[in-house]
Write a structure and sequence with these properties.
Layout (H helix, E strand, L loop, with lengths): L4 H21 L3 H18 L3 H6 L1 E9 L9 E4 L1 H12 L2 E14 L2 E12 L4 E14 L2 E12 L1 H4 L5 H5 L4
Helix pairs in contact: 1-2
Length: 172
């Protein structure tokens, strides 16, 4: 997990970015509440506070990282414990993460977060630069679903034909 000052900038921008868009679009309070749950999850991860992160998740939460089968973090996990383990495993593959927030949008129970991120892929030591989005569904104050997709220059993708993915891929 990332407890660096780089992550703090992302967290600081998160609510400001959303509130600026929400005010312009007249979004109702329940959407703001969903955004605050997602922000709390990011904040807990940024501080390496697993207890607080776990508290944001529903018991039957589903987490999907969409991507080609050889992607080091692609997979689908269900249930709070399985999702927490997947998130820990995925975060352990990255260092020096520097996400730059682009958008936070909410409609109903859904929150969409879009960012560009640079950092280092730990298994190879190579730098990466990706654009990602995470789509959250929040019900009764808990995250019930997360879908994540990314594209860009990721060394885990470039190494797929070389077999690096075989030992790197999470259990599915």
């Amino acid at each position: 997990m990332n407890d660096s000052l780089r992550m703090q900038r992302f967290l600081d921008e998160f609510l400001r970015t959303y509130e600026a868009n929400a005010a312009a679009n007249g979004e109702p309070g329940h959407e703001r509440a969903a955004v605050r749950v997602v922000h709390a999850a990011y904040t807990a991860l940024g501080r390496a506070d697993l207890e607080a992160f776990t508290a944001t998740l529903a018991d039957d939460v589903v987490f999907e990282c969409l991507g080609p089968p050889h992607s080091a973090i692609a997979g689908r996990w269900q249930g709070r414990d399985e999702v927490v383990q997947a998130v820990l495993r995925n975060f352990s593959k990255f260092a020096d993460q520097c996400p730059e927030l682009e958008h936070v949008v909410a409609r109903g129970d859904s929150v969409l977060v879009v960012a560009e991120e640079t950092g280092r892929y730990v298994p190879t030591g190579e730098a990466y630069d990706v654009w990602w989005l995470q789509a959250f569904v929040v019900k009764d104050g808990k995250i019930v679903r997360v879908r994540q997709s990314a594209s860009g220059a990721g060394p885990w993708e470039a190494k797929a034909d070389a077999g690096v993915h075989a030992s790197d891929a999470p259990a599915r």
